[in-house]
Amino acid sequence: xxxxxxxxxxxxxxLTGSVTKQLIKGLTEAGHEYxxxxxxxxxxxxxxxxxxxxxxxxxxxxxxxxxxxxxxxxRNNDAILFVFxxxxxxxxxxxKGYIDRVWNNGFAYGQDSVTGERYRLPVEKIGxxxxxxxxxxxxxxxxxxxxxxxxxxxxxDYVGVKEAAVHYLYETIEKFPDDSEKxxxxxxxxxxxxxxxxxxx
Length: 201
What we know:
Layout: E1 2-7, H1 15-29, E2 33-38, H2 65-75, E3 79-85, H3 93-102, E4 125-131, H4 136-141, H5 144-158, E5 163-169, H6 180-199
Parallel strand pairs: 1-2, 1-3, 3-4, 4-5
Helix pairs in contact: 1-6
């Protein structure tokens, strides 16, 4: 399987970057190929411009060059794996902008006004790997997992993809100032989990 790994973090040396490396290691060892789309490093523009706003009844819609390039990237892969920190209980604005622009009408959803054919995102599977700062009990106590799962799985269903999974990596900002060994074990466990997710994707 060819997997497009969409990474959203302003720093490549972040924990999100390290998690991505472990995910890729797992994907590779499972026999998958991968392509990285690092939205910040590549300077992706998350703003929806007039050129990318759907013309609902135009079956020959032409989007901006940047969006056409990203759509081609999606078509060249069998699956998408999103890696991102959870900010304010949602995906980062950069990633939301990517979805707004690339998962566009006439490509990921909608209906051809001439043939009646329904559009769907041309991949078989989508995975979401989110780094959560807080603890799992706190996250679940307030129902954030239910709300976010519902939103992300609905997005996938809306664009016609049948297989999807949401994974959370918790306590990703935890500090252990008096115990460096405990801190290392904590973050090693997070990275090991990321590797497992990639291997089982």
